[in-house]
Amino acid sequence: MLLGRSSECARLLALVDKARRGESGALLIRGEAGIGKTSLVEHVAGESGDLRRLGTRGVEVESDLPYVGLADLLRPVLHFLDRIPERQVAALTGALALGPAVAHDRFAVAAGTLSLLGALAEEGPVLVTVDDAQWLDPYSLDALAFATRRLGREGIVVLFTARDELDEPASRLAAIETMTLGGLDAESAHRLIAEEGTAELTEREAARLLAEARGNPLALIELPALLSGSGAGDDDPDSAAPLPIGELLAHAFGSAVARLPQEAQDAMLLLAVLGTRPLAGTEAALRAHGLSYESLEAAEAAGLVVEEQAGYAFRHPLVRSAVYHGATPVRRRRAHHAIARSLQGATAPALEQYAWHLAASGAEPDEHVASLLENAASGAPDTLAYPLASRLYERAARFTPAGQRKAERLLCAARASQAAGSLDEAAAILDRSLEHAEQLGTRLDIRQLRCYLDVQRGQPTRSRELLRAAVDEAEKVDPALAAVMLGGIALTELAVGDLTAARGTSAAAMELADSTRQTLLPVRLLRTLVLLLGGDADAGRSLLRELAGPLASPDPAFPYPLSGVGGLCHLAAEELDEAHGLLDRAAYTARASSAVGLLSHLLCTLSVVEFWRGRWSPSLAHADEAVRLAEATGRLIEVPRGLAALARTEAALNREADCRRHAAQAMEWAAATELPMDAARARGAVGLLELGLGRFEEAVHRLEEVRAFSRTHGRGDGLYLTWAADLADAYVHLHMTAEAREVLDVLEYEAGRGHRPVTAGAAARCRGLLEPDAAERHMRRSLALLAERPVPFERGRTEFAWGEQLRRQGRRSEARRLLERALATFERLGASGWAARVAAELHAAGGTEVRPERAPLERLTPQEMQVALVVGRGLTNHEVAERLFLSVKTVEFHLSNIYRKLDGVHRRAQLVRLLAQASEVSAV
Q: Rounded to whole angstroms, what are the CA distances from 489 to 85, 451, 465, 475, 537?
């Protein structure tokens, strides 16, 4: 057992034991430099010899090179690539510079990483170690974090280590359990000094060492040589002040380096600049300085470097830091220049390393170098990996003098970064680009792209202000661009729920678009949505029909998801089957291309559509996946949307605790991302929950908040933000007739805007409740209207309301027939709160409660349901894993649970039939 680390070792070995049983797990180990993070991981690895190990280590000087850490990790298992989907192979090999570069979203690389680890785990349990994660390049860290979060039943353990004073890795690994490593206890510290100490110490020196080291193992081992004979511990005023561990160790290692021959110091500096695993030009760089690997023998004898299979490496990252930062700036620049010379003539991605070292050597702007880099980034359109292209454009800008050309190259870098899914990085690059832009067109392009980034990152207010300031300028030079910008403003206004503002903005955008005689799909699509939400719905439907062709194959490169907006248009038009068809096809395509960021948006809207269609298990599955993907990809705007969708479906299902939790989270996220409409949707979900439980006062309280939001922002009622029918229902039960009539006015106005059978059906139901003498006419009309759309929950509510009314009028036999149908519907849907209310009414009407069997799919978890839905398309387990960004073993685990939970379902064909039957039943 590692000295003083028994509990920590036990915790890690427990993860290893789980991996042997086929379960996956992960842990982030944080602590200061020298605290023993690496030693702990190495000890556990030594105790886990039956697990296949993959490992990498972050290197400070390599942290700007995309995927260098991932390439190092996966290099030993690349022969498993033939076991994962071809698209993911192409993305991985392109990103890791192992094959032809291909255009890809960076999450395609993450999905490929997950698939490759899963394929490896099919051979047996796997241990993955990532040391010094704070220095791993962000692309590699994001890919590994994404893969780790989606591990399940593969038998893989992933251990990250990171310095605790750095927040960047912690934020990227926030979803992974963390263990903070502290210093050794006093007894263990004394034992370590006795067993490993490098010098004899006096009693006072030993006391000073224990005080300064504070249980840090590396300090306890390395500092005795520094303190021995120094008189440390004498009664001088400074001796009581503890020094930072990093400074003490850097001083200790720096002193050791300084005692080496100059030749060894020069070789160590080159090694520090190159990284732990030397690049292809290592020997050339050494020779350029008249050095060789033999020059490092003195450093090896001093215990500062060790020889590994790939060459020499530093014994500890602090040694590298001491060597690099201890050298004079002139010596560092000379070392970088030597390495740059050895990489001259390289092609991408080594070309980027050449540029990086050249920049670090202090080289001045050079158009020849800049053009070389730019040509490498743009020379093969749509074939270069986006992250690498972004970095090459950035390097090109570094060698470009301040001015317009620099701005253009930075703008290209930002576009590539956005395409790669790195939204924060793209925003930072755009800010730099704007500083150098001299031409109006470039400044406008920058502002437009920044707008879309800010919307996706949950900053719609900033986005709107930025574009407003640019539209007037754009209109003078490029009316089409100005129209698209106005469309972007309308998009942000719709995102926050301000329909009043969006009406004027979208009308102005449409007027400009018409003047250009161009189709401009984004502008026309947003105008369509505005009309359907709160204007001439018939005109909106007409526009939507005209756009059917372009919507079938929208531009995938456009910064926001046009298919998703199209789905919202069909939802606003109450065309549920059309909305489902468009969104389902778009989601399928997004999965096939690993477009994770786009997928989260599509799934949020698809969840709402499935709620209305009465397919609540898929609704939960889509919303759950949307939230997880949005958090993983930084599309923060989608998080509250998905949470609000979850809360509404859970409200109808009477999952009270889950509904309240997700609604509270949605409101918190909505506040942080300036999206008050999603907070209103979450409140509406809680209102529906209270209504289903018969808590009418509480329902009114929540739903009146949604009504106030709707009034303030010029919205009525619709299928996306719905409240009026629920509030009217609650008012009626509280005998607040006047208030109910006011809300009915809203419903009937909305129902009169074109053919909207769901809203019209709800309005007829409410009028029937308010006019008992004419109830039969209104309730029959409600059922007839609702029969035009697959909305079983709404039909059940009308049957319940009518049956309840008839029972109170003494028409018990008629009431029983309606209540029995309503009960069957609610039971089939899983609406237990509503079913309980109907059962009470049925009992009062003299009926016998006969509960139909619950829908079997309700027994599945959201993730099991998502697996079932994709299996239902006839895909293999490998294809399902690819589409859902899971490992094959996790898919197999979920599939076995599905078969166990669904009686009589043991094969894929049976599951496909059950899903088809469930879809048919939901439409009844």
A: 39, 8, 9, 14, 21
Could you tell me the CA-to-CA distances from 656 to 165, 624, 648, 832, 833 in Å, in that order?
41, 17, 11, 11, 10
- With a CB cutoff of 8 Å and minimum separation 6, the contacts of 745 are none
Residue 313, classed as helix, strand or coil, is strand
Work out the widest C-alpha separation in the chain, in whole angstroms: 105
8 A C-beta contact, residue 464 and residue 448: no
CB 512 within 8 A of CB 478: no
> Does the structure show a pLDDT above 50 at 383?
no
3-class state of residue 312 by DSSP = strand
Residue 569 is predicted with a pLDDT of: 95
Q: In which band, very low, low, confident or very high, does the pLDDT at 64 lie, cut at 50, 70 and 90?
A: confident
pLDDT digits (tens, 9 = 90+) for 322-350: 888 888 888 888 888 887 887 777 766 66
Q: How far apart are CA 420 and CA 42, in angstroms?
A: 34
Dihedral sign (CA 792, 793, 798, 803): positive
Do residues 320 and 314 touch, judged by C-beta distance below 8 A?
yes
From the number of C-beta atoms within 10 Å of its C-beta (0-12, 13-18, 19+), residue 528 rates as buried
Give residue for tokens 């903070």.
180
End-to-end, the C-alpha distance of the chain in Å comes to 65
CA dihedral 243, 248, 251, 253 (to 10 degrees): 180
DSSP 8-state symbol, 308: E
Task: Determine the Cα–Cα distance for residues 108 and 421; give it in Å rounded to an integer.
Answer: 10
Distance CA(597)–CA(570), nearest Å, equals 22
Q: Which of 264, 277, 270 is nearest to 304 (CA)?
A: 264
Structure tokens at 69: 């850490």
674: left (phi over 0), alpha (psi -120 to 50) or beta: left
For 889, residues 6+ apart whose C-beta sits below 8 A from its C-beta are: 22, 118, 121, 122, 152, 153, 154, 155
